[in-house]
Write a structure and sequence with these properties.
By secondary structure, this protein is of the alpha/beta class. It has 4 domains: 134 residues, P-loop containing nucleotide triphosphate hydrolases (Rossmann fold, 3-Layer(aba) Sandwich); 66 residues, Helicase, Ruva Protein, domain 3 (Orthogonal Bundle), CATH 1.10.8.60; 100 residues, Up-down Bundle (Zinc Finger, Delta Prime, domain 3), CATH 1.20.272; 114 residues, no CATH class. The protein is 59% helix and 6% strand. It has 20 helices and 7 strands. Strands 2-3-4-1-5 form a 5-stranded parallel beta sheet, with helices on both faces. A two-stranded parallel sheet has the order 6-7. Helix 5 links the parallel strand 3 and strand 4.
């Protein structure tokens, strides 16, 4: 028997409101509560496997303590400027209740602060921790993948893998709230097959939502569907007319809506054309509007509207599905963004070295001197001397040569320039120790 469905995601609907509602990890919860009550300006790091309640515990703590919250999450580009503007401002200013009120600042996926996107982020977060007037929590999956400088400024609180009996209690409570009659054997099977709370609740929703009762037979069919890959979910959207089936399959994916919309965008033109393609992109654009509102308002309840537009809207747009096999591709945008950010990082690194040597700004070096150096790099000897002078690494040399870093040309220039640097360093040491004297006609990098 089926009932009318509430399309709210159960992971959000039943997120713990207080620390007493957080199941399992009693030791970590106790340490978190003690940290908040005796807060001494030191930040906390909640670390452990994904989906076990770290973020939920942080928000539950804020509710218990009566604190406002502000989160800088994984979908943001956490550059130094953004962190200073958002987290820094939040950590310094008062709340709506006045200067005596506190605000909890939450930085999710803190173990992913590396590379180009988060350039300067580590130092900015360290500065925020040192100057903060409000409690700050960092959330990470891998504690030792976090920068050492951040670990030294924080109190680590470990969340451990959740046992299946704790998951079963949560699933049973949800079934009671939803007025769904459930078989305990079925719940046990869901809990044992799920790696964490989040996955178990998503599996339960995919199986039980819209029903008044379910048993082991429903679980056996449902779990087969929840393990389907992204490619099978795309096929459900583009090839079938089953709105509910496609929507449930998308709930079970281990993909955020922000990532899933890129998959649909990449493959939509492979399946649709003409006016159908126009209508499908219209639905996709509306989904993107909701995702933007989620990022701005931090209201994750709006995810369900984005999901319905990108799944049901795109599926409903078609008139007749294409029968031939269509190979789906991962989002090309990800690759282009990665390459673009990597090249910009190398360019800025080269400009910084040029600017320091020539006593000009990085912007001037980037705009005026890098094109000039690229012309000079067409001459091998000149490329070697400049590389040694500026101590360029192989990626920076490849950038100026406009070749790949693993090309023989880049490796040759890099190898010879390193030999020049070694000889100059050895000569400088001897001069400093008084073992020899300089010669006016001897080659010196500093005179280049």
């Amino acid at each position: 028997m089926y009932i009318v469905m509430d399309r709210t995601q159960w992971t959000e609907k039943y997120r713990p409101k207080t620390l007493t509602e957080v199941r399992s990890n009693d030791k970590a919860i106790g340490e978190l509560k003690e940290w908040a009550e005796k807060w001494d300006k030191k930040a906390a790091i909640l670390y452990g496997p994904p989906g076990i309640g770290k973020t939920s515990a942080a928000y539950a703590l804020a509710n218990d303590m009566g604190w406002d919250t502000i989160e800088l999450n994984a979908s943001d580009q956490r550059t130094a400027d953004i962190i200073k503007k958002i987290a820094g401002s939040a950590a310094q200013t008062g709340t709506f209740e006045g200067t005596t009120g506190r605000r909890l600042v939450i930085l999710d996926e803190a173990d992913n602060i590396y590379g180009n996107v988060d350039k300067g982020g580590t130092k900015a977060i360290a500065d925020v921790i040192k100057k903060t007037k409000h409690p700050l929590i960092l959330i990470a999956n891998e504690y030792y993948e976090m920068p050492k400088a951040l670990r030294a400024l924080c109190r680590p609180i470990q969340f451990r893998t959740v046992q299946s009996k704790s998951i079963i209690r949560v699933l049973k409570k949800i079934c009671d709230q939803e007025k769904i009659e459930c078989d305990i054997v079925a719940l046990n099977h869901i809990a044992e097959n799920a790696p964490d709370f989040r996955s178990a609740v998503n599996d339960l929703q995919a199986i039980a939502q819209g029903r008044t009762k379910f048993d082991m037979t429903d679980v056996a069919v449902g779990l087969r569907d929840t393990r389907e890959s992204i490619f099978k979910v795309l096929a459900k959207i583009f090839k079938s007319y089953d709105l509910k089936g496609a929507l449930h399959a998308s709930y079970a994916l281990d993909e955020s809506p922000e990532d899933f919309i890129h998959w649909i965008d990449e493959n939509i033109a492979r399946e649709y054309e003409g006016s159908v393609l126009v209508d499908a992109f219209e639905c996709l654009s509306r989904a993107d509007i909701f995702l933007g509102r989620v990022r701005r308002r931090q209201n994750y309840g709006l995810w369900r509207y984005a999901g319905e537009m990108m799944v049901c809207g795109v599926q409903h747009a078609k008139i007749e599905p294409r029968r031939e096999y269509i190979p789906y591709k991962p989002p090309a945008t990800w690759k282009r963004m990665g390459l673009g950010r990597s090249m910009k990082s190398v360019r800025d690194s080269v400009a910084a070295k040029i600017g320091k040597h020539c006593h000009v700004s990085q912007q001037y070096a980037r705009s005026n001197l890098i094109p000039f150096l690229r012309m000079l790099f067409k001459d091998h000897e000149c490329a070697v001397e400049i590389s040694a002078l500026l101590c360029l690494d192989i990626t920076e040399i490849a950038f100026l040569l406009n070749v790949r870093a693993d090309s023989k040309k880049a490796q040759k220039v890099h190898g010879i320039s390193q030999e020049h640097i070694a000889r100059e360093t050895e000569h400088a040491i001897k001069i400093f120790g008084g073992f020899t004297s300089t010669s006016t006609n001897q080659y010196k990098l500093s005179e280049f």
